[in-house]
Structure formats: structure tokens, C-alpha cells
From TrEMBL:
Obligatory cofactor(s): heme
InterPro entries to which the protein is assigned, alphabetical: Catalase, Catalase_core, Catalase_sf, Catalase_SrpA-type_pred
Native organism taxonomy: Bacteria, Pseudomonadati, Pseudomonadota, Betaproteobacteria, Burkholderiales
Function, in words: Decomposes hydrogen peroxide into water and oxygen; serves to protect cells from the toxic effects of hydrogen peroxide.
Gene Ontology terms, MF aspect: catalase activity; heme binding; metal ion binding
Entry-linked SUPFAM superfamilies: Heme-dependent catalase-like
Family as reported in the entry's similarity comment: Belongs to the catalase family.
Main EC class the enzyme belongs to: oxidoreductase
Protein name as it appears in the record: Catalase-related peroxidase
Membrane-spanning segments: 17-39
EC number: 1.11.1.-
Occurrences of domain Catalase core (ranges): 17-359
CDD domains: srpA_like (cd08153)
Domain of life: Bacteria
Length: 359
């Protein structure tokens, strides 16, 4: 084949380079848009995490939300009941190791355990072939807001006043008044009582997902884990119980494994799938998929959950995320928070030594 002479290029080669240039420019523009570089007013993960950080204070090496927590581990014992709905390996009659984390909302790792009535439970299940299912659940059945923009605006409205150290009540009142979708959440808050145990809470996925079976059929679901152990009569976190949740969990697990049922609620055709502020009717079909067993508790600064990003969009084959806009926003914000805290660990006393010992 005849080659072009030195210093020359054929029209075909020229067009090829133009096409490559256009493609590269397109990818660059896409990344610029996602990162907010080309649209300064656009909401970005960095803005969301900056807002959380401003509210919770500067605590290097910690998560920007759910900063106070404790590592747990154990396993999930699938019973096969959900395998007709999903080809994910966890839902066969099999045992899968779990690394989890109980935590409180907020960016202060030293907050007292009675400071909020909400607790969270994050899990990472890993199959023998490496597939993972990561989930972050909360002890409230609905989320207060439906969009990332509203969540960001709430964070701004909740920012502590430098003079009082507390949010401006008028700003919060105005924000709530402008968001009627918060009704279901506020109704829950009015009757919620902060328990004195992580182990006796029910934890909800909040967002909807899809289970996908071997034939490709999708079923929208939400899930929850319900405790098999009961709360002690009158067990409520009170003032002065700064670390009551971790201390209670340590005592309970020392006495024996703690157990929760994993329950999938199947959506009907007209149930809202992309709005976490709206609940589904109580009579929807529920599938008992197996039992979560947690039998080890360790401090979060040295435990196996420390370096896990509990991104809820990390899903195995047989599960898919819904189009709920909060899911993509959670994934992006978790990634930003993860990069910040892991890059800060070198500056935390003892962190370098612990990392060396782990190796």
C-alpha cells in the first residue's frame, strides 16, 4: 500500500484525527459538566459535601456524614426465597460474609448517642466470585426530601449560627414550609423515640431498587432488616448517654450474635419507585429472604469497615438501581467524602502506624 510522503497526511487520516479530537472534546465536556467546571451554578458532589462539612465541623479522617459509628461483621444466611426474583448469588440458600457499620447521622464523630432519633446500618456483602452488594439503610421508613437540590438547601438552612451554635429556627421553618413532601417524615419524627440499642432497630433501604431474575424480569422493591432481638422495657437513650449505643452493642454481641430478618417489599405497578419521600401501602407482598447475623464488633478507627465506601449503587448481577435521583447523588457524594477522609489519614496521630501494622 502506498504511504503518504513525509510531512503529509491523507484526507482519510485527517478526518480520522478530527473525529478523535471531537470525541476527546466531547468526553472532556462531559466530565466538565459532571464536575461542575462548565456550569458553576450547577449542584455538584463537592458542594453537597462542603455543606455537610460546614455543618458538622472539621474532623479530618472521618466521614462527612454518619461520622460517629462502629464496625461490625458477620454473615447473611440466604434461604432461597428471593431467588425467583433475583439471580444475585446472595439470595440462594447460602451464607455470605458481611462487613457492616452502625452509625449516627451528622458529621461530628463525638456527638452524644442521644443527639438524634435516627440510626443507620451499612452493609457490604461479598460473594465468592467477588460480586458485591453494598447498602446504606436508616431507621426511618421514608426520606424527608425527594431531590439532591432540596437536600443541599436543607443543609444550608441547617447551618449553625456562629453566635448560638445552633441553626436559625426561622430559616428552618421557612425551608420546611416550602417542602410539603416532608410531611411523612415529620409525622414519623414526632412519634420516634431514640432507642438505647442499635440492635433493636429496624433499618430501611429508603430508595427503591430492582431485583432481576434469570429471565430478565424486573421487580421494583424496597427492603428492610427487622431485629429478632427485643428492646429492654423502657430502653431509651437519655442525656448523658454519650456512647450508650456502642457500649450496648458490645455487651449484646459478647453475649451472642444479633439477628435481623431481611424483608423485600414488592412494589405494585402504580407504586412510586423514584421518590423516597412516599411510602408504599402496608399490604404489599413481602418476601423473607434470609437472616443477617452480626457476631463481631470493633472500633471504627481500626475495624474492617473503616476503609469501605458504602455506595448503595454498588450492586451485583441480579440487582439494579432505580431512577431515584437521590441514588446517583448519594454515590457521588460518598465518593467525594471517601477521597477526602482517606487523603487526610496521614495527618491523624497514629493513623500511619495503624496503616503500617495492617500491612
Amino acid at each position: 500500500m502506498e504511504q503518504p510522503s513525509s510531512g503529509q497526511s491523507s484526507p482519510r487520516n485527517a478526518m480520522r484525527w478530527v473525529a478523535i479530537g471531537v470525541a476527546v472534546a466531547g468526553v472532556t465536556a462531559a466530565f466538565g459538566y459532571v464536575g461542575g467546571w462548565l456550569a458553576p451554578q450547577r449542584l455538584t458532589p463537592e458542594k453537597v459535601v462542603d455543606a455537610l462539612q460546614a455543618n458538622g465541623g472539621q474532623h479530618p479522617g472521618y466521614r462527612r456524614n454518619h461520622a460517629k459509628g462502629v464496625c461490625v461483621s458477620g454473615y447473611f444466611e440466604g434461604n432461597g426465597a428471593a431467588s425467583a426474583y433475583s439471580s444475585a448469588p446472595f439470595f440462594q440458600a447460602t451464607r455470605t460474609p458481611v462487613v457492616g457499620r452502625f452509625a449516627l447521622p451528622g458529621g461530628n464523630p463525638y456527638a452524644p448517642d442521644n443527639s438524634v432519633p435516627i440510626r443507620s446500618l451499612a452493609l457490604r456483602l461479598t460473594a465468592p466470585d467477588g460480586q458485591q452488594w453494598r447498602t446504606g439503610m436508616n431507621s426511618m421508613p421514608v426520606f424527608p426530601l425527594a431531590t439532591p437540590q432540596a437536600f443541599y438547601e436543607q443543609a444550608l438552612a441547617s447551618r449553625p449560627d456562629p453566635k448560638t451554635g445552633k441553626p436559625d429556627p426561622e430559616k428552618l421553618k421557612a425551608f420546611v414550609g416550602g417542602h410539603p413532601e416532608m410531611g411523612a417524615f415529620l409525622a414519623w419524627v414526632k412519634q420516634a423515640k431514640p432507642s438505647a440499642s442499635y440492635a433493636t432497630e429496624t433499618y430501611y433501604s429508603l430508595n427503591a431498587f430492582y431485583l432481576v431474575n434469570a429471565q430478565g424480569r424486573r421487580q421494583a422493591v424496597r427492603w428492610r432488616v427487622e431485629p429478632e432481638q427485643a428492646a429492654a422495657p423502657g430502653s431509651v437513650a437519655t442525656a448523658g448517654d454519650a456512647n450508650v449505643l456502642q457500649e450496648d452493642l458490645s455487651r449484646r454481641i459478647a453475649a451472642g450474635p444479633q439477628r435481623w430478618k431481611l424483608l423485600f417489599t414488592l412494589a405494585a405497578a402504580d407504586d412510586p419507585v423514584d421518590d423516597a419521600t412516599r411510602s408504599w401501602p402496608a399490604q404489599r407482598t413481602t418476601i423473607d429472604a434470609g437472616v443477617l447475623v452480626l457476631d463481631t464488633v470493633t472500633a471504627q478507627d481500626s475495624g474492617p469497615c473503616r476503609d469501605v465506601n458504602y455506595d448503595p449503587t454498588v450492586l451485583p448481577r441480579g440487582m439494579q438501581a432505580s431512577a431515584d435521583p437521590l441514588l446517583a447523588a448519594r454515590s457521588a457524594a460518598y465518593a467525594d467524602s471517601y477521597l477526602r477522609r482517606t487523603s487526610e489519614e496521614a495527618g491523624i496521630p497514629g493513623a500511619a502506624r495503624m496503616q503500617s501494622e495492617k500491612r
